[in-house]
Write a structure and sequence with these properties.
By secondary structure, the protein is an alpha/beta fold. The chain is built from nine helices and ten strands.
Length: 241
């Protein structure tokens, strides 16, 4: 098996903003394990589109290969940036030599968190996440790791403006677009969703049991709820390679 990471499949994910520029992540898959690594990331400051496109191309040259798949946020990418020509980000970037496909429905935060949790890998013989951040990406100032560590999800106490306006949220969005991209992760998504349904069933059974449902007449708890209690809380750590 070829372990030269330069030959691993490469996926590029872009989150465009009309005011903040581009947030771009590059992920590569280890074919031995089907685990992914964020191998590079870049925040392209807001500028004329031709300038931003050239900066993305420069980053690709730095990486040393063209992505097999380039994905852009479907919603943001369809914003009209030239009303006279009725052109969106997809159209203009295509004219500038960058061909992106729209992302599928973005993953939930829970699904992203599952990808960032450590699991045992029999090939590498150690605990590794499905998606890890490499050391050089973790070292980027105000990069993806910074964004993940500071991101908060508290819709009860935070307004929609506070939730959506968090610095670093764009990095989180990039990873959400990647995790749920069927063209990349179709087989793994099927397995994850099957496992997610089983965990959801256990949580619902436990919740029902906590309110007294599912008890037998003698007061004992019926079996079948099972499983560990799972309370969603955005983790404050992420695995680096």
């Amino acid at each position: 098996m070829n372990i030269d990471a330069r030959q691993w499949p490469l996926v590029e994910v872009v989150d465009p903003s009309m005011t903040r520029g581009l947030y771009v992540c590059w992920m590569q898959m280890d074919p031995r394990t089907e685990r992914w690594y964020v191998t590079w990331a870049s925040h392209v400051e807001d500028a004329p589109l031709s300038v931003m496109a050239e900066q993305v191309k420069r980053e690709r040259r730095f990486i040393g290969k063209e992505p097999e798949l380039a994905v852009m946020d479907a919603k943001g990418g369809r914003h009209r940036i030239d009303k006279e020509r009725d052109e969106d980000w997809f159209t203009r970037f295509r004219q500038l030599g960058l061909d992106y496909v729209p992302n599928d429905e973005p993953s939930t935060l829970e699904e992203l968190d599952e990808w960032l949790k450590l699991t045992w890998d029999p090939v590498l013989e150690k605990m590794v996440a499905k998606l890890s951040i490499t050391e050089r990406v973790a070292a980027i100032e105000m990069g993806p790791l910074w964004g993940l560590q500071r991101f908060q999800w508290n819709p009860i106490e935070m307004s929609a403006k506070q939730l959506l306006g968090q610095p670093g949220k764009d990095w989180v969005d990039c990873l959400k677009y990647f995790v749920n991209q069927r063209q990349v992760n179709r087989a793994r998504l099927r397995r994850d969703r099957a496992g997610g349904k089983a965990r959801s069933h256990r949580r619902h059974a436990q919740l029902a049991a906590s309110y007294g449902f599912g008890k037998s007449q003698d007061g004992r708890q019926n079996q079948g709820g099972g499983g560990r209690t799972h309370i969603w809380s955005p983790p404050s750590y992420r695995q680096s390679r």
